[in-house]
Amino acid sequence: MQARNLVLAAIFACFSLLGTARAEKRIALVVGNSAYENVARLDNPKNDAALMARTLKDLGFTLIGGDANLNLDKAALDAAVQKFGQQVQGADVALFYYAGHGVQIRGSNYLVPINANPVREADVDFQMVDINLVLRQMEGSGTRLNLVILDACRNNPFGGRGLRGVGGGLAQMDAPDGTLISYATQPGNVAEDGAGGNSPYTKALAATIRRPGLDIFQTFNEVGLSVKRTTGGSQQPWVSSSPIDGNFYFAGPLTPIKPDIADGSTKEKHSAQSTDSLRLDLITDCDRLAASPTDPQRPKGIAGVPATEIDIVAALAGCRDAMRQFPEVARFTFQAGRIASIQKDFVRARQLYEQAASMGSAAGMNNLGAMYNAGNGVGIDYAEARKWFQKAADGGVTLALTNIGVLIRDGKGVNKDPVEARKWFERAAAGGDGAGMTDLGLMYENGLGGLSKNDAQAVSWYRKAADANDGRGMVDLGAMYRNGRGGLPKDEAQAVSWYRKAAQLGNGFAKDALTRLGR
């Protein structure tokens, strides 16, 4: 067990970096203004702020007001900024995020409260909030890093009012010491409000800051590239920064594990020790770590450590092929908690799925969709779940077809449509997905999706699903034996046999059925 503990200690050292990052005192004020009273309303700032609030809370930020601050008038915005200034005293990181109307007047940038209604330039100082006021709240607070994020230059809402000093977009500001200012687009330009509920900038930002391994400059560079691609080059985010002391990672670094490869004399010493000693010579390079399970060069384990955990070491060591196994690493460890020393951590699992998805892993995309569907490690978002399921399906994951069918069948994010759901299940079943076969069998059993009730067809699909190693199919086939339906004889022994097979796969319904039968 000594060797197992040593290897897992190395693994956990990497994982604990996220916990170290979260130990920082991180304070954020998130504001989204959409419901303007005297100028054009905006569709997305309230959604953008809500998305950022969820994301920042997942990343260990304490939010002023506990959540996004939406549709603030001048008095409420002043009060929120003042409270922010009080709370950031002694914090490690202070972050201010604003989505809504913003204007440049005579070279200064202003945030627009929902009740602003200036008719002359002199009204601006009393009806809007100078962004420099936010920066002053951060100065002298003792923070290591200050972040100001402005998705606030969608258009000039006061055109035609005679405010002669109003310029297009926002003006570039000099960032004070230890500060980074990020604009949704370059100074003087106008950003898109966006379709589909979020602006291109905030959507890219929320996705990027969840990715471990990106420092602050890499993060905003990735955001800029993403927005540029999404908008066809019409919008290019901009960053103004002063020198920043040290590194900052929103989601923690992915520090490679670099096992010390012992020299010959040390290897000799290790080989003379018991089999519980850590055999460092087994971890030599990525090729051996990432070898297929049947490859004789693949490590069989380090002194009893299972090969699955070797995959984890390989992935964290930065071996690219092994990193594609992040979906399995996350499912095996953080989502399922199947290593006793690792507690379930849905946020960490989701981050690994995102890392895998960014590398083109269709399995990671499917698992990420499942997280959004269930609200594990992220807020429930059926539209986002559907998006990731579709990407996974396009990548060849047949289970993703079933998952899309379930969303449609249950009316999650769309109107319920059993007929359309059945078509997705049929596609999944044709591709060999056991879960799709089971759901198709359920439709025959219950007469759904435009099908007539047909127990024999249900049994046929349950059997195919069981043969495909789907636990639900085994349970439903067992139930058919137990009740003598679909042309099957009543046969409790057969039912119990299928329940046991499903229980071995971890199916909770099978375990309950066995308990009820006293088995």
Please tell me about this protein's structure.
- The structure is a single chain.
- The protein has 519 residues and is of the alpha/beta class.
- The chain has helices at residues 2-23, 45-58, 74-87, 124-127, 131-138, 200-208, 216-230, 264-271, 286-289, 307-316, 320-323, 326-335, 346-358, 362-374, 382-394, 398-410, 418-430, 434-446, 455-467, 471-483, 492-504, 508-516, and strands at residues 26-32, 61-63, 69-70, 93-99, 102-105, 108-111, 129-130, 145-151, 166-167, 179-183, 238-241.
- Helices cover 48% and strands 9% of the residues.
- The strands form 2 sheets. Strands 1, 2, 3, 4, 8, 10 and 11 form a 7-stranded mixed beta sheet that branches. A 4-stranded antiparallel beta sheet has the order 7-6-5-9.
- The longest helix has 22 residues, at 2-23.
- It folds into 3 domains: 23-241, Rossmann fold, CATH 3.40.50; 256-323, no CATH class; 397-519, Tetratricopeptide repeat domain (Serine Threonine Protein Phosphatase 5, Tetratricopeptide repeat).
- Helix 1 packs parallel to helix 10 (307-316), helix 18 packs antiparallel against helix 19 and helix 19 (455-467) crosses helix 20 (471-483).
